[in-house]
């Protein structure tokens, strides 16, 4: 694990890229912004995933996990963002995979729109140990709705 104070280094890949930032002091995630060149618009149409550029790259220190997650405000409008992990050895542009829930809908993304959020957390550096048996619990192997009705 990383020792001491670490930083998340961010590089603008284009001059008009906006750096991630928290919307409020209590926000867990950093907003990620669309960085669209030219006329500054990309149309999402239907449910086909589309990669939206952010114009930034980051350097994640070993011992940290960076995840890209959807914004609830966009989800409420029928716009999806796939979860993603940015590994500590990746140095390319952060691209956000977006799509629409409704196959008949359309949505326009403009340069500077908040399109996702970036969550930074520490990773659990646990060793994997293969065993013959796992300890038993009341729930056991019950999944997918087994704890509620």
Bin the helical content: under 10%
What is the general shape? globular
Name of the CATH class of the domain at 28-122: Mainly Beta
Biggest sheet, in brief?
4 strands, antiparallel
Rg estimate, integer Å: 19 Å
What fold name stands as the CATH topology of the domain at 28-122? Deoxyuridine 5'-Triphosphate Nucleotidohydrolase, Chain A
What can you see in these coordinates?
The chain has one helix at residues 72-75; strands at 9-12, 30-33, 41-45, 50-59, 64-69, 79-81, 84-86, 93-100, 106-110, 114-122. With 149 residues, the chain is mainly β. The longest helix is centred in the middle third of the chain and has 4 residues, at 72-75. The protein is globular. The protein starts with 8 loop residues before the first strand and ends in a 27-residue tail after the last strand. The relative contact order is 0.25. The model has no long low-confidence stretch (mean pLDDT 91).
What's a quick, concise take on this entry?
The chain is mainly beta and 149 residues long. Helix content is 3%, strand content 38%.
Core attributes:
single chain, 149 residues, mainly beta, Deoxyuridine 5'-Triphosphate Nucleotidohydrolase, Chain A, four-stranded antiparallel beta sheet, 10 strands
């Amino acid at each position: 694990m990383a020792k001491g104070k670490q930083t998340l280094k961010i590089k603008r890949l284009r001059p008009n890229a906006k750096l991630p930032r928290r919307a409020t002091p209590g926000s867990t995630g950093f907003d990620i912004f669309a960085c669209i060149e030219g006329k500054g618009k990309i149309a999402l149409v239907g449910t086909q995933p589309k990669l939206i550029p952010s114009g930034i790259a980051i350097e994640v220190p070993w011992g940290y996990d960076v995840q890209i997650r959807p914004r609830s405000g966009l989800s409420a409008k029928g716009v999806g963002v796939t979860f993603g992990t940015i590994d500590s050895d990746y140095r390319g542009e952060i691209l956000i995979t977006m799509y629409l829930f409704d196959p008949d809908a359309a949505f326009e993304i403009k340069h500077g729109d908040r399109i996702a959020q970036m969550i930074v957390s520490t990773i659990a550096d646990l060793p994997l140990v293969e065993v013959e048996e796992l300890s038993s619990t009341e729930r056991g192997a019950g999944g997918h709705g087994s704890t509620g009705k």
